[in-house]
Fold this sequence. Notes:
InterPro entries: Aldolase_TIM, Class_II_FBP_aldolase, FBA_II. This is Ketose-bisphosphate aldolase. With about 300 residues, the chain is α/β, with parallel strands linked by helices. Helices cover about 45% and strands about 15% of the residues. It has twelve helices and ten strands. The protein has helices spanning about 10-20, 35-45, 55-60, 65-75, 90-100, 115-130, 165-170, 200-205, 225-230, 245-250, 260-280, 285-310, and strands at about 25-30, 50-55, 80-90, 105-110, 135-140, 145-150, 150-155, 175-180, 215, 255-260. The strands form two sheets. It has an eight-stranded parallel β-barrel with strand order 1-2-3-4-5-8-9-10, surrounded by eight helices. A two-stranded antiparallel sheet has the order 6-7. A hairpin with a 2-residue loop joins β6 (about 145-150) and β7 (about 150-155). α11 (about 260-280) runs antiparallel to α12 (about 285-310).
Amino acid sequence: MDYKDFGLVNTKRMFADALKNHYAVPAFNFYNMETLSAIINASRNTHSPVILAVSESALKYMGPDLLRGMIWGLNLSPNDNIALHLDHGSSFESCVTAIKLGFSSVMIDGSKLPFDANADLVKTVTEFAHQYDVSVEAELGTLSGIEDENTQSTTSSYTNPDDVVNFVERTNADSLAIAIGTSHGAYKRKSDNEELRFDILAAVAKQLPDFPLVLHGASSVPEHFIKTINEFGGQLTNARGIAPDQLRRAVQMNICKINVDSDSRLAFTAGVRQHLAQNPENFNPRDYLAAGRKNIYENCLDEIKNIMQSGK
């Protein structure tokens, strides 16, 4: 199915505008109706472009038919400026499947492969995807941390700025995720003093001026959600995200897409835990799921305006 039939767009024009006007497009992961509707409402109410990100495990969880039904039900038009993106595609086959389902953007993650093998895999995906006008994101460098079964690593390696031009030219990728000290999951830093490697980002941006750069593993892990989760029975200790001021600085240095997953998970869990604890007699899923949805909506609003700086 062609993504244009859903009213979706690819990422090319939104990234070009983000680079020109110094903001980032948020890529919010979703997993069900509640998380999807919260993200879309935040996008519409801020007039911000948004990338709806779906991991392979989330696609398996929702099922392709239900996913397409939910996207169809949004009644999108190209003016909404919404892309549907495969997050961390693990193979050429998974990217092909997503494109045939109607995704307008795919990420092929060959970051754990040697340079040449990564480049060859990305090139194979771009040659196929560009036939359908689908955007392709690649990754150079490896992030540590765990988000789900398809997004985990116990080691990390920074992106080498000397490699990026060769990589982009060989692959014809439309955007590049780089490793400058972010990580997946809710445990991104050991202390508040850790800073991203802005020297690497500056060097990459110098090598690739006006080229879309992406930050994965860049959730800010809001402290109030951690506090609420722990207050109502959770056990999240030492969870720490990327400071918003560092993310805003990165946005001014050619980062035009920032991935957010952990923040939405934390927001949703905090809302559900608090509602159930404060309303022990309630067994209506619509009530406690609505509390989680409200938290995600409010967090997306905040991140769009105060981190991505993309809202109007």
